[in-house]
Amino acid sequence: MHTHSQFRWLVRRGAGVACGTRHQIWAIALGGRSLVSKWFSSSSRTAMVASEKDFENAVHQVKLLKEDPGNDAKLKLYALYKQATEGPCNVPKPRVFDFLGRAKWDAWTALGSLPKETARQNYVDFVSSLRPSLTSSSGEGPAAHRSLPESEDVVVTSKDSITVITLNRPAKKNAITYQMYQDITLALKAASKDNSTITVFTGNGNYYSSGNDLSNFSNRSGSLQQMYAESALTLRNFVDSFIDFPKPLVALVNGPAVGIAVTVLGLFDAVYASDRATFHTPFSSLGITPEGCSSYTFPKIMGPAKAAEMLIFGKKITAREACAQGLVTEVFPHNTFQKEAWARLTAYAKNPPKAMRIGKQLLRSFGKETLHAVNAEECRVLQERWLSEECVNAIQTFFSKKGKL
Ligand SMILES: CCCCCCCCCC/C=C/CC(=O)SCCNC(=O)CCNC(=O)[C@H](O)C(C)(C)COP(=O)(O)OP(=O)(O)OC[C@H]1O[C@@H](n2cnc3c(N)ncnc32)[C@H](O)[C@@H]1OP(=O)(O)O
Fold first, then answer.
1. How far is the CA of 194 from the centre of ligand 1 (A)?
2. Measured in angstroms, how far is the CA atom of residue 204 from the centroid of ligand 1?
3. Which residues line ligand 1 (CB under 6 A)?
């Protein structure tokens, strides 16, 4: 269930475990109620109403907190989350020695009959007031121009007015882990604000990317529903950051690309590929469905018949085929790929940045709302597919028999 997940997460992530000392537990248990009443009365005055998306984003932000916001804040988040999602407290009071359970129950109960919408708004407001305590993961500090500290698997460099985001997990064919989805999202946010003119995506090693890391779903704790809800939100934010990216975005596809690494290419402004690259979206054989807005962009780019061959039947295509179908801008011989593509990019990056940005806006902004709607729907459908027997079996096959594409 999604219910207590957030608090559990905070407990897991909190320094020395949230409510770490007995003393702190008592402090919460004894003082929680009045504190929560105070939060409620001070923050419920706001007239704004947060959308579902704002709320989901705030929930996601909380998961990214790198610093323990403190027990009071955690209780407040817990209570507002429960109120926003379930309404007034409807569970029996925990037994007397369940200090943590009691503190949480008190915090939730103290919100009384606060409407769900107000709780949602208060939650969003409170999370944004916590933002300063988000660490470097906001990706906006100088470090963002080099490498995101959270993982070595996504490296961000900057040169000649070009920000380069490199998938750097060559031993695993640059399969994208949960952390990498988050790092890429943050790297794109940072790149959208830095002083580069163009942003480039590429992979280290002989693969561009083998797509979603299939162990993402086996390495997480919590209930399946909770995990898939979290995954859908992570995916949605990840794809949103491509949809909303304001500067020219270029992919240098240095080798085979699979799954989500292929689908988001429809959101790029140029795709340069090595002639060793292939493009494969084996969704049906994995029991899943298209994402990355490909259910909308691919038919537009290559026509419905070719899109169906890739997205429904899982046909793998070569770089030259992808170029003929409009998914790839240009193909280069592998030996000269880096040299030629970089010469091209370095020249393009010298264009006046504002003109390029505004040009992109003109080309892209009219379809944006549709893309966001498509993304939301694809993520909703995927969330159901991940629970299906077809999908569970396909992932098991990959890891047990090492079944490959
Ligand atoms: C709470 C959870 C958060 C989740 C976050 C959001 C989730 C969003 C999901 C979005 C959905 C996306 C859909 C897709 O992307 S579908 C595509 C999935 N990818 C695959 O099916 C590819 C699987 N890999 C293969 O078939 C082969 O590995 C290969 C790519 C054809 C390469 O074969 P090759 O023989 O050359 O190399 P190896 O198989 O020996 O690979 C080397 C090691 O890398 C590991 N590997 C490769 N790809 C993946 C992968 N996608 N996931 C996990 N691991 C991968 C492989 O197991 C080898 O590891 P080993 O050396 O330890 O054996």
1. 32
2. 15
3. 172-173, 175, 178, 181, 210-217, 220, 227, 230-231, 234-235, 258-260, 282, 286, 291, 398, 404-405
* Domain positions in the chain: 48-130, 154-403
Ligand 1 centroid from CA 346, angstroms: 32
Does the predicted model carry a pTM greater than 0.80?
A: no
pLDDT digits (tens, 9 = 90+) for 155-214: 999 988 999 999 999 999 999 999 999 999 999 999 999 999 999 999 999 999 999 999
Alpha helical stretches, state H, 44-92: 52-64, 71-86
Domain 48-130 has CATH 1.20.80.10: yes
**For ligand 1, atom 62, which residue shows the shortest CA distance?**
172
- Structure tokens that stand for 218 in this block: 């086996």
Report ipTM (2 d.p.): 0.98
Q: Alpha-carbon distance 118 to 218, whole Å?
A: 36
The two three-digit tokens of residue 80, written as one number: 């507002």
Domain 154-403 has CATH 3.90.226.10: yes
